[in-house]
Design goal:
The complex is a heterodimer of chains A (about 280) and B (about 450). Chain A is an all-alpha fold. Helices cover about 80% and strands about 0% of the residues of chain A. In chain B, a hairpin with a 5-residue loop joins β12 (about 360) and β13 (about 365-370). The longest helix of chain B has 18 residues, at about 310-325. The chains are: A mainly alpha (about 280), B alpha/beta (about 450).
């Protein structure tokens, strides 16, 4: 039964995909109006103007371009023109740096806050205010104070991905079952040992859920940050191709961002599965 | 005797007066000659340097003009030069001269915005102008004017491509912290245009533009001031009758297509891109508002000049050099080819070529030819700076009084650029102020306040 469900789902996915591609192809076949023009004038104009080609690329254009990118993902033609693979590498490195910093800060801090109901209540308003701030709002402040665009991008990832982790850690630690803690107390387990052998394993699933939310946010943020700061990364790639009004490349970048985001999410999902326990 | 006189010429007049005898001294003669005849770009760069070095050596060996003449008469110029190079390594000296003093910093980062105005800055890398002056420059594409400004102020970039008014705005602290900035060279003159959406092709009279939404690249830009000037001259108040938005150049074409804006005054390649994609037409070139107006500048902080004067001088030489090369019409095609790829402008080559060569489709079915559509002239006229400040005041960006000339002289380094140009064998203008005409109205840099008062439409 389970197998046939997967199979049927796959078939439906494929049909949906085919419908989407078909509709896209039909919509962009392009039969726009063209004005009559002299040949030397036409030579100076683009295809949209001369042949009425739709400004929106069709699936075939995207497929061809995608193959080109996949064939040479790591070319390097100087500081402003690098392959898709290199750009994604830069972005992942930035996300990793900002995200790891956030993990290093959020988890111990969340642990401390979660173990003290007083601090938990006292810090709550600050966290609630800081949590919903958009990465783009942090950017000018970061550029101004840090005075380095690379570090600013990492800082923005840090500041945006820290909150879900912090809140989940606080929540996970605070809601460890009282009985377990009390049993540990009765057995005279020290505070440090109690934290590592009882509270940490009990709160781990919640903490990892927070980390999973955070990696998603970090990946969202990087594109925005790199579009603004420029230089390298997939966000810069989008901006650079937008600059050239090359919708084909923008679509490819969107695809790449989606795939990498999904992979990052899956990695964290696997980790969550490792620490889940049956109640 | 001045640097450019031929020291191997025995017939040169000595004593007072100039070589043609009509002027009080040689400097006046040179200035006059420069004004009369557009200086032909002399042979190659190296030849020019060689000439300057050889004359310096000759002069050092025979400080007395009379005895030098006697020597030259006796042996002839060719023999003299040959004899000289026997015991003096002229080639090495020329090389050393071309590179200036020891460079404090060889690896430099220069930021640019991907528009044709940045042509000299960009082409310096692929065409080897930076390398020739001993520099290893990485030109970095940047996302927008505010980011270029911040990255240059943060010292991530040693120098950058900026709109001509930006270094003035930064120095005055408008829209940013006040940091002393300088302009050693203007990038390009002309090179902008007003493009309107194709649906407005019958509204060629600006009086009909009331209620339109127009875009410019940045608040502190020549684009903004020229558009406002143009509208105001036609009786349209740019603050009341139309909406002027600051939109990054790449988004202009997309917005025009999406019908979010009715038109824009933008760098040439953006205008041409809108035409190329069939969404707009060229209303007028900015040249028709003010022929010879500055557009973008090459800017560096005052701090960079004081900490790395030789690197700065080499950079200025490279830019002046590239600008001189770009000013020649016959080089424009190869430049377009060099700067169009993804690493630099990332645009279709034909669009760049049409912008640079001035043979372009106007969006209404005609091919127009105007070789001066964009031109390149590095000299940072201080009167440009004064004009820019009058407009900043006119539209309320500067509040209160401003010492026009003091700021102009602090930011636009006309004296230093003139020196560099002289060292390179080019002829700089004799003065840093000139008057010019904007839409038939002449501007006198000595009377900025009267000029400002003469406008009917301005921000109160």
């Amino acid at each position: 039964m389970a197998k046939s469900l997967t199979l049927r789902a796959a078939v439906v996915s494929l049909v949906l995909f085919a419908c989407f591609i078909g509709a896209w192809h039909l919509a962009t076949r392009g039969t726009g109006s063209t004005a009559a023009m002299s040949p030397e004038y036409a030579k100076l104009m683009g295809l949209t103007a001369t042949q009425g080609k739709s400004a929106m690329p069709g699936p075939l254009d995207v497929g061809v371009k995608l193959l080109q990118h996949l064939r040479h993902p790591f070319y390097d033609n100087g500081p402003n023109d690098k392959g898709l693979g290199i750009q994604l590498g830069y972005s992942i490195a930035r996300v990793a740096a900002g995200y790891l910093l956030a993990v290093i800060v959020a988890i111990p801090l969340g642990f401390l806050i979660g173990m003290s109901p007083l601090m938990s209540k006292a810090l709550d308003p600050f966290i609630q205010v800081l949590k919903p701030i958009s990465p783009l709002a942090w950017m000018p402040l970061a550029l101004y104070t840090i005075k380095d665009s690379g570090l600013s991008a990492i800082f923005v990832i840090f500041i945006c991905s820290i909150w879900p982790m912090l809140l989940n850690t606080v929540f996970g630690v605070a809601s460890v079952r009282k009985e377990w803690v009390n049993v540990a107390r009765t057995l005279e387990v020290g505070t440090v040992r109690r934290a590592f052998t009882v509270i940490l394993p009990a709160a781990a699933p919640t903490i990892l859920t927070g980390m999973r939310i955070s990696i998603g946010i970090a990946w969202l943020v990087i594109v925005a940050a790199e579009m603004l700061v420029g230089g390298t990364g997939i966000g810069y790639f989008v901006w650079n191709e937008w600059n050239n009004l090359s919708i084909v490349n923008v679509i490819i970048a969107i695809l790449a961002i989606g795939v990498v985001g999904m992979l990052l999410d899956q990695v964290l999902a696997q980790c969550t599965r490792l620490v889940t326990f049956p109640e | 005797m001045s640097t450019f006189d031929n020291p191997f010429d025995p017939d040169r007049r000595l004593g007072a007066g100039c070589s043609c005898g009509r002027h009080a001294n040689e400097a006046e003669h040179a200035a006059d000659a420069a004004a009369l005849a557009p200086q032909p770009m002399l042979e190659s760069e190296d030849k020019r340097f060689e000439g300057v070095v050889a004359s310096a050596v000759m002069r050092a060996m025979f400080p007395q003009d009379a005895s030098r003449r006697a020597f030259l008469k006796a042996v002839g110029a060719g023999t003299a030069l040959a004899a000289l190079s026997q015991f003096f390594p002229l080639a090495t000296a020329t090389e050393v001269f071309a590179q200036g003093g020891p460079l404090e910093k060889k690896d430099l980062k220069v930021g640019f915005i991907p528009i044709t105005c940045a042509t000299p800055i960009i082409m310096g890398a692929p065409m080897g102008f930076y390398a020739k002056h001993g520099l290893n420059v990485e030109v970095v594409k940047t996302a927008g004017w505010a980011v270029v400004r911040d990255k240059t102020m943060n010292k991530e970039y040693d120098a950058a491509h900026m709109l001509a008014p930006m270094p003035i705005a930064i120095t005055l602290g408008l829209g940013a912290n006040a940091v002393p900035f300088t302009v050693p060279a203007i990038e390009n003159i002309n090179g902008q245009g007003i493009t309107l959406a194709t649906k407005h092709k019958d509204k060629r009279d600006p009086k009909l533009w009331k209620g339109m939404k127009l875009a410019v690249p940045f608040d502190y830009s020549m684009h903004n001031y020229l558009l406002r000037y143009y509208l105001a001259e036609h009786g349209i108040d740019p603050d009341q009758d139309v909406q002027i938005r600051s939109v990054p150049p790449p988004e202009m074409v997309a917005n025009l297509r999406a019908d979010n804006i009715d038109g824009f005054l933008a760098p040439d390649n953006i205008c041409q891109r809108a035409i190329y994609d069939g969404v707009g037409f060229m209303h007028i070139l900015s040249k028709q508002i003010w022929d010879g107006h500055p557009c973008c500048s090459f800017a560096a902080s005052r701090e960079f000049i004081t900490t790395a004067p030789n690197s700065f001088a080499a950079l200025t030489r490279a830019i002046v050099d590239a600008t001189a090369y770009a000013s020649k019409a016959e080089n424009r095609k190869s430049i377009a080819q060099a700067i169009a790829p993804a690493n630099y402008l990332n645009a279709p080559e034909t669009v760049i070529e049409q912008s640079l060569t001035g043979t372009y489709a106007d969006g209404l079915g005609e091919v127009k030819v105007d070789p001066k559509r964009v031109d390149f002239d590095p000299f940072p006229w201080q009167s440009f700076a004064v004009w820019i400040m009058t407009q900043m005041k006119r539209w309320g960006q500067i509040k209160g009084d401003v010492d026009y000339k003091a700021v102009a002289e602090q930011v636009y380094l006309a004296t230093d650029t003139a020196k560099v140009m002289k060292e390179m064998g080019l002829t700089p203008p004799a003065t840093a102020y000139k008057s010019f005409t904007v839409m038939g109205k002449s501007f006198d840099p000595d009377k900025p306040d009267d000029y400002l008062a003469s406008f009917k439409i301005k921000k109160a």
